[in-house]
Amino acid sequence: MRQPLHDWTLTPQQAIDLQRHLAPRAERSDRLGEVHIIAGVDIGFEDDGTTTRAAVVLLSWPELVPIEEVVHREPTRMAYIPGLLSFREIPAALRAFERLSQSPDLVMVDGQGIAHPRRLGVASHLGLWLDLPTVGVAKKRLCGGHGEVPEPRGEWTPLTDRRRKEDPADVALDAEGRVTIGAMLRSREGVKPIVVSPGHRISQTTALEWVIACLGRTKLPEPTRLADRLASRRGQRFKHERMQGELGIGE
DNA sequence: GCGACAG
DNA sequence: ATCTTGTCGC
Hints:
Helix content: 25-40%
Number of domains: 1
Order of helices and strands: HEEEHEHEEEEHHH
CATH topology: archaeoglobus fulgidus dsm 4304 fold
Number of helices: 6
Largest sheet: 8 strands, mixed
Strand content: 15-25%
């Protein structure tokens, strides 16, 4: 784990200032060693959003089979504000990570990495706290724009944004003078593309490669898909229904 | 000033 | 995110 970078109870403006301060700390280069364990992280809510539910799933590579799961619940701290998602979700996620018996070599987070107005999405922020390589896998775009994404599975199109003051002085600009912040990936045919962006200690190219390598036949890559189910309680529900069926109760 | 807006 | 059944399609 790692030493606290800051407090979690902040006003929106303080949070924004903090993001501007932390963004340059997120490494864009690859520092990945051998990958044996990949983690998937997601947060869900219960009781009208009063309770926050953090789920972390560890999968073995290359089997992509779940080897450990942790679910942590705690009172929700603050409301959802676009751009400040990490302050709402990370505290609970950190608690879940503390309960893991081993540390992953790569983490996939449900949300944006640097594809964020201040280049510090929840994946980047979490990566800094854990000091682990992270990738953002979001179902929807927060900022930036892109062209059409080819239909075949595995195809992608760059997600670009106007240059922001949080971008390093030496950022590469495309022909239109825009910055590449991620990729719109067709993870499955006939389904809306997902947003893949590097979080911390990983490059755009490597981040995309790992997400593609973790794709099954569903829209989301295995790590995020399993964490999603745990966080939204679908895994338990199915298990419960199956038990009822085996016991001959229910309908 | 007018939209857009992760989960 | 969450509330929710059946239904259309590969």
